[in-house]
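// run 5 | inverse folding | seed 20
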């Protein structure tokens, strides 16, 4: 009853004659706080559960123990009292200029959409977003290499977020995002190295829809996929690449591992094409630009192993001295060094299949 009285008192404490009166509420433990409601309805669903709904411009709600804050033009929800006397949000519907903020530890997730529905389901929570949707994640992490700042932004036309139960505000709750498309992903990472200097990378990925698995940092694209990326280290020229195919999976490097290259692994199929623009050292301290263009039925790029494997109807061309021409084979394995320069190309072709066309000099 004490919480109910506190609510009624705060709602009534609006100055007479105020232009835009708003409702303010805070539970006994200063955990759940509601503000900015210009119209308001409140009821007890049972002895431990309250139902609230109202409008604002915007109306805001926050739940400290859940690391959750939200704002929208319309807000309704169920909040349940726990043993400590605080209220936790177990269900919510937000409409109009929706923003949801999740702030666990060093990572913040900001979600915006036209509408959002949040529901707790056992040991997880689910957020369903409709309309123009953006999920933006920013964070800063420290490692033996230095401190890395990272921003990941995904935009689309709706999404479902699978979250761990919001009971541990010091842990990242995000498990999975299913995004409706067309979808675009952008990611930037920058590391200030402990020994001095900086390294960083940029990534852009697009597709008709996608699934993002947070624990594995994996992006699954069931339809046409296109990826562009670049990498820099201590002011050295950037390594750039493009990749496209009919479907694919891309695994990102966790920012605390390294920020100088955006992807750890890519597997793409459906008549793929990859371009790699890098440099090659021709003598001590002197480098020249190098371009490799590869087409195939499928490919697997493994940055940790520094290998690019192309399978089926492979066509290779480019400006590298190893590739001063156009080669058609059944399979090719490209090996890179630590700087992602081409050091070896191993080719396999059935008798009569391998073809080489020397590049004509201008």
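// decoded
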């Amino acid at each position: 009853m004490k919480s109910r009285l506190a609510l009624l008192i705060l709602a009534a404490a609006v100055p007479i004659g105020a232009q835009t009166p708003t409702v303010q509420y805070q539970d006994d433990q200063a955990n759940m706080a509601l503000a900015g409601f210009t119209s308001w309805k409140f009821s007890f669903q049972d002895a431990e559960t309250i139902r609230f709904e109202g409008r604002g411009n915007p109306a805001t709600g926050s739940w400290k123990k859940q690391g959750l804050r939200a704002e929208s033009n319309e807000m309704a929800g169920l909040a349940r009292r726990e043993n400590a006397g605080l209220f936790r949000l177990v269900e919510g519907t937000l409409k109009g200029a929706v923003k949801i903020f999740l702030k666990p530890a060093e990572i913040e997730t900001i979600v915006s959409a036209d509408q959002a529905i949040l529901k707790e389901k056992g040991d997880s929570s689910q957020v369903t977003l409709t309309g123009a949707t953006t999920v933006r994640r920013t964070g800063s992490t420290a490692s033996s290499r230095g401190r890395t700042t990272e921003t990941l932004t995904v935009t689309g036309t709706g999404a479902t977020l699978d979250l761990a139960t919001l009971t541990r505000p010091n842990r990242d709750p995000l498990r999975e995002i299913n995004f409706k498309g067309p979808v675009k992903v952008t990611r930037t990472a920058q590391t200030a190295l402990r020994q001095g200097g900086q390294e960083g990378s940029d990534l852009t990925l697009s597709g008709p829809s996608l699934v993002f698995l947070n624990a594995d940092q994996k992006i699954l694209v069931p339809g046409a996929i296109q990826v562009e990326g670049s990498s820099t280290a201590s002011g050295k020229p950037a390594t750039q690449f493009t990749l496209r195919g009919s479907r694919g999976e891309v695994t990102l490097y966790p920012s605390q591992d390294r920020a100088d290259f955006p992807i750890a692994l890519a597997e793409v199929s459906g008549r793929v094409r990859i371009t790699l623009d890098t440099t090659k050292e021709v003598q001590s301290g002197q480098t020249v630009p190098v371009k490799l263009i590869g087409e195939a039925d499928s490919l697997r790029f493994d940055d940790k192993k520094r290998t690019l494997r192309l399978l089926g109807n492979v066509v290779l061309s480019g400006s590298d001295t190893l590739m001063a021409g156009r080669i058609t084979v059944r399979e090719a394995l490209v090996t890179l060094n630590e700087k992602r320069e081409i050091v070896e190309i191993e080719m396999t072709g059935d008798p009569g299949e391998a073809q080489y066309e020397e590049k004509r000099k201008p």
